[in-house]
Amino acid sequence: MNFQSVGTTLKTISPSVAHFSTTMVKSKPRHLVNMLELTNEELAALVTKAAGFKAQVRSGNPAPIEQHQKLLGKLVALVFSKRSTRTRISTEGAASYFGAQPMFLGKDDIQLGVNESFYDTTKVVSSMTSCIFARVAKHQEIVELCTHSSVPIINSLCDKFHPLQAIADLLTIKEAFGNKTSGLKLAWIGDSNNVINDLAIAALRSGISVAISIPKGIEFDQKISDSAKEIAESNNATFEIFNNPQDALINANIVVTDTWISMGEEAEKESKLKQFAGYRIDANMIKSGKAAENWKFMHCLPRHQEEVADDVFYDEKRSLVFEEAENRLYAAMAVIDSFVVNKGDLLK
């Protein structure tokens, strides 16, 4: 074959090569990183979808077979560098609901960040799965995963955000207050952490005012605070930060706390307990803080005795903690349906 015939052959096959190259290019997937990246309408759609899944599951009637075939034969990866109870169970349950095979990949199961770079591991895992639920230490790890993954990354907890918990919490609040959110007030009594970072934004997007009480010496994330104030103003709500729990509790409909000592901070326990003196929630604190008569209590678990007394945590009329925990399942189902099945179209 001479050079002329080679050129002719290349001209002949070039259209198909071009078509092949075009079809092989994948559009960038949409990831769930935090509540800041959602619109008010998208958050509301996720919560509504979660409520729909809950109603279907609790009805006792089998879901339509096509619901269980949406991800049939596909893998859902759970890349967890931190231990988990609710997140693991809810994610594996949600994946199974859609017919996918959940694959738990703990820190001792794969090479992520140990003998292999984030880039290499993410490229490999995302090439074989439909999405990756990532429960990691640092927010930068979520950023790296999103940068290199060819499938949706679902932030299942990092040191800065916890979006799945926020979706579950909004569902819990709507259930407790007759499907209403606008005009309510949420009081957070605790640390400045990943849970309140996302919960504050989600609440404000839903028209719920937020009052945060954190001890002196602890600073709330300034960027989140700035965004929270803007969202509050546009949703006819308020956003305030105090150091005295009683100031935050005034007229609060929802009282929320979380662990004061996050995973990885165990060495700071003694100093943290001193810093949080007077922050333990009990019925007397809520009464003296003049919370609303219909107040409810929430905690994302695991709970520790120093954070909240039994008279609040186990109050059958006030505490929503176990309903809140169950709602993590329906939040995960809504996220899989929206980000994976519907490819990031949250309003579909």
Quote the average pLDDT: 91
Major sheet summary line: 5 strands, parallel
Order of helices and strands: HHEHEHEHEHEHEHEHEHHEHH
Bin the strand percentage: 5-15%
Number of DSSP strand runs: 9
Low-confidence stretches: 1-24
Question: Compute the gyration radius: what is it?
Answer: 23 Å
Approximate shape: globular
What does this structure look like?
It comes from [Candida] anglica. The protein is an alpha/beta fold and 348 residues long. The protein has 13 helices and nine strands. Helix 2 crosses helix 6 and helix 2 packs across helix 13 (321-341). The longest helix has 22 residues, at 3-24. It is globular. It starts with a helix and ends in a 7-residue tail after the last helix.
